[in-house]
Write a structure and sequence with these properties.
The chain has helices at 32-53, 100-114, and strands at residues 2-6, 16-20, 57-61, 71-77. Helix 1 packs across helix 2 (100-114). By secondary structure, the chain is of the alpha+beta class. It has a single domain (2-114), classed as 2-Layer Sandwich (HIT family, subunit A). The chain has a four-stranded antiparallel β-sheet with strand order 1-2-4-3. The chain has two helices and four strands.
């Protein structure tokens, strides 16, 4: 029902985007069964991210203002978080891109957890 992707910016380690595979813009566009399945996948993914990154809390964002398609931002908030009381959108920081082996390791960790 969904596909998981590491967010390009890994300033918040483990930031993952969970994208609905078929197009819908609102939760009420889904059947009751689809909504239940989606929430189960969101919850399962959040649990795995929380365990993998030892998160103090996971933030869940379902906005769709810029991209009108159901997709969840799941953001593990760690003990080392520089601004634990602010939403990630309000935390000024330099973009942290992963490249090469670091990117491969991060993607592999996510795949193994969600397999």
């Amino acid at each position: 029902m969904t596909a998981a992707y590491l967010h390009e910016d890994q300033f918040f380690p483990g930031w993952t985007v969970l994208v609905l595979r078929h197009h819908a813009t609102e939760l009420f566009h889904l059947s009751q069964l689809e909504r239940a399945q989606l929430i189960d996948e969101v919850s399962r993914t959040a649990k795995e991210l929380s365990e993998e990154f030892q998160a103090r809390k996971v933030n869940y964002e379902l906005l769709g203002n810029q991209l009108p398609h159901i997709h969840w931002h799941l953001i593990p908030r760690l003990g080392t978080d520089p601004a634990p009381l602010k939403p990630v959108w309000q935390v000024e920081h330099d973009l942290r891109l992963l490249h090469g082996a670091a990117l491969e390791v991060a993607v592999s960790r996510l795949r193994n957890r969600l397999a």
